[in-house]
Write a structure and sequence with these properties.
Layout (H helix, E strand, L loop, with lengths): L3 H13 L3 E7 L7 H18 L4 H10 L11 E7 L2 E8 L7 E5 L5 H8 L4 E7 L2 E7 L10 E3 L1 H10 L8 E6 L2 H19 L3 E6 L1 H15 L8 E4 L10 H36 L1
Parallel strand pairs: 3-7, 5-9, 9-10
Antiparallel strand pairs: 1-2, 1-4, 2-3, 5-6, 6-8
């Protein structure tokens, strides 16, 4: 698990030496009233922070930061941290926290953030159709300055697709042309993307014949001795055209499911290794 963003958060809080307000909020935007519901739930958390002595300057900073990303389809959560009137971090999570929660403590309450990171893997998404292919590489979280919003996992994937400009940490390659003409180049793009983020999963979607052809080209590299190859997983959703929200939401659901299965399998394997170590003692 990459905990650099969490370490940076604690370092920033230590430098300030002030109580830290930590807010964890479900910011899913699934209907036209979502923004109003999020605002009401934030107001309840805000009142609780004020009752526990949070200063107005810090509350005002949080007012400006909370609320999620309305254009991001599918479930999302948010962890926001502030102290002494300064924003320490804004993290859009791939899944909502188990419950809305806010605290004022000497150190950040980063459990929801760590749990979200623990359910993410660096991954590559490959979408192909008769017109070409998109290859997108995503680390677990975007490396951004503390005061900018950071996206995790599949929310990072969608932010990369929807953003007007590049999202830090995301690498995108687009090949246009008939599959027969670009197939070898796409395979090389996938291998390069895997290496850049040290991907543990490659999610592929789109035209079945093209995907089978791509699998044939990747198999020799993935089966070569050396580092453990990433899991190659077929997902639904196809190649989203023009940032279509419905297509992006479907692709996100399928990538989320694949990431969930992959992380669950890795957690189970780690638990089995732990049990084996205990049995040998």
């Amino acid at each position: 698990m990459d905990l650099r963003s969490v370490v940076s958060l604690y370092e920033s809080a230590e430098n300030l030496g002030a109580p830290v307000a930590s807010v964890h909020l479900d910011t899913t935007h699934d209907d036209r009233l979502s923004a109003t519901h999020i605002e009401h739930r934030w107001r309840a958390l805000r009142d609780g922070l004020a009752e526990h002595g949070c200063d107005e300057a810090t509350l005002t900073v949080l007012d400006k930061a909370v609320g999620g990303v309305p254009d991001l389809p599918g479930p999302q959560g948010e962890s926001v941290f502030a102290a002494d009137g300064r924003l320490l971090g804004v993290h859009t999570l791939a899944a909502p926290p188990l419950r809305d929660h806010a605290s004022l403590l000497p150190i950040p309450d980063a459990l929801a953030l760590v749990v979200d990171l623990d359910h993410q893997l660096p991954h590559v998404v490959v979408a192909v159709d008769e017109h070409g292919a998109d290859v997108d590489a995503f680390p677990v979280s975007a490396e951004q300055p503390d005061t900018r919003r950071t996206f995790h996992g599949s929310t990072l994937h969608l932010a990369g697709l929807l953003a007007d400009g590049p999202v830090t940490g995301v690498t995108r390659r687009r090949r246009e042309g008939p599959w027969a003409a670009v197939a070898d180049q796409v395979a090389q793009d996938v291998l390069a993307a895997v290496g850049e983020v040290k991907a543990r999963m490659v999610a592929v979607t789109g035209d079945p014949q093209a995907l089978e052809s791509l699998r044939d080209r990747l198999s020799p590299a993935f089966s070569a001795p050396g580092d453990i190859p990433p899991d190659l997983v077929l997902v639904t959703g196809g190649r989203p055209s023009g940032g279509d929200p419905a297509a992006l939401a479907e692709l996100r659901r399928s990538v989320d499911a694949a990431l969930h299965d992959a992380t669950t399998a890795r957690h189970r394997a780690a638990l089995e290794r732990f049990r084996g170590d205990l049995a040998r003692r």
